[in-house]
Design brief:
By secondary structure, the protein is of the alpha/beta class. Helix content is about 45%, strand content about 20%. The structure holds flavin mononucleotide.
């Protein structure tokens, strides 16, 4: 049976969101899926389509996502009319100076991926606050990656199930 793949996408300026992305991917890998990490600037629509699940993260900027992340979201309108991302597993994460603003940023990601694209969000999204201890963050990220992996593995259709099996 093939391993489902999770694409963890992020933008970062000072490195926090990248650390979260990598720890989420580690957690997902440990949970049995094939996770890869990519900056949003390097991500095309084909990447979004190819992955079984996506996790999208941004630093919180003015209670919102960074424009680089919004650009990818806006470009994904091409996939919207055909509902091409619908029901894919999705994770959302942010790094922020404050929890209140992080919640706003996560809400933006939730609206785009969950409400508009109809993806299946693993909630609640993950927030990292700048003052959080490194070890706490790493543990939470790995756990979130593990939950994404569980969700992806739960949807896997066994390769050995034949048409005959399904008719029984
Ligand atoms: C342009 C800009 C806007 C920001 N706006 C907010 C904000 O509205 N609320 C907040 O709590 N932190 C804000 N921050 C702090 C960042 O969210 C925080 O430092 C984050 O960890 C940066 O992530 P990065 O290291 O991945 O770039 C802002 C930082 C920058 C550079």
């Amino acid at each position: 049976m093939c391993q489902p793949c999770l694409l963890v996408l992020y933008y970062t300026q000072s490195g926090n969101t990248e650390r979260i992305a990598r720890a989420i991917a580690e957690g997902a890998d440990a949970g049995g899926v094939q996770a890869s990490v990519k900056r949003v600037e390097d991500c095309g629509l084909a990447d979004l389509l190819q992955a079984d699940g996506l996790a999208l993260g941004s630093p919180t900027y003015f209670s919102n996502v960074a424009w680089q992340v919004k650009r990818l979201i806006d470009e994904s309108i091409e996939l919207y009319s055909g509902q091409q991302l619908k029901d894919k597993v999705a994770g959302i994460f942010t790094s922020s100076g404050t929890e209140r603003d992080a919640q706003d940023c996560l809400r933006m990601l939730e609206i785009a991926l969950g409400f508009h694209h109809g993806m299946s969000l693993v909630e609640p999204g993950l927030m990292h606050i700048s003052r959080d201890a490194e070890e706490k963050t790493r543990t939470e990220c790995r756990q979130y990656g593990g939950r994404l992996a569980e969700e992806l593995l739960a949807r896997r259709v066994p390769a050995e199930s034949t048409t005959e099996d399904k008719e029984r």
